[in-house]
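Homework help thread (please don't just give me the answer)

Our assignment gives two proteins as sequence + structure token strings and asks us to describe the second one. The first is just a warm-up. Here they are:
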Amino acid sequence: MSLARTRRYRADTNYWPGFVDAMATLLLVVTFLLSVFMVVQFIATQVASGKDTALKRLNRHIAQLTELLALETSTKITLEDNLSSLGVTIESKAAENKRLTGLLGAQGETARKTARRASGLASKLDEQISIGARALASVELLNQQLAAIRRQIAALEEMLETTESRDRESQTRIADLGRRLNLALAKKVQELARYRSCFF
């Protein structure tokens, strides 16, 4: 009689509700983990796209500043060449002025003409000197502009390095979060396996 009762008890045992509960729990856990992973992936994509836009803008700015620096450098070289040629001209005019001044003591009318010519040359020399002074001022201004451009380029390079370091930190955080999600998923799967083993 006890054997018949045991057979009837085994026939009445229904494992289906426990199996359905385990599968529903597994499905909810997987859905939750996938949702969290999708949110993290979306945030990481937004951060990466923002970094790429900032890097492109900084690269364009650096290219523009490099072109401006090249232009200013060529202008400075041209002005320095003009200044050197003006220096040679000034030296030649000064030598001619000395020569004409030496001839003044030996000649009468020719001396007066020579004096007038010397005064004309002196005025031209003064003009050349003033031109040279203006050229020197322009060269000094260009040097100041070049120094400012170099400071801007250094600041932009520092900003670029800061942006790249932040990007590397974001990538490290994303990898760490993915590893944690994988560990949590593995732990849930193990728990479900233990839960399932309790019913089977």
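The one we have to describe:
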Amino acid sequence: MKWTDAEDIGIALSEKFPQMDPLAVRFTDLRERVLQLDGFDDDPKTSNEPKLEAIQMAWYEEWKDKG
């Protein structure tokens, strides 16, 4: 997965952290969680706020659908 794979990352985060409210996660913490995902293989330096926001929203969509 790459930073631009927001939907795939959102799904992975919702599976790894099912009880965590994505909107309560700071971008710095979100970035670290993404970097720790199995299958994530992108340059940490290329993350930015718009990419993290897209990931957070994708994660939120998955989380609220499961809740």
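TA reply:
I won't write it for you, but here's a hint about the kind of observation we're looking for: The mean pLDDT is 96.
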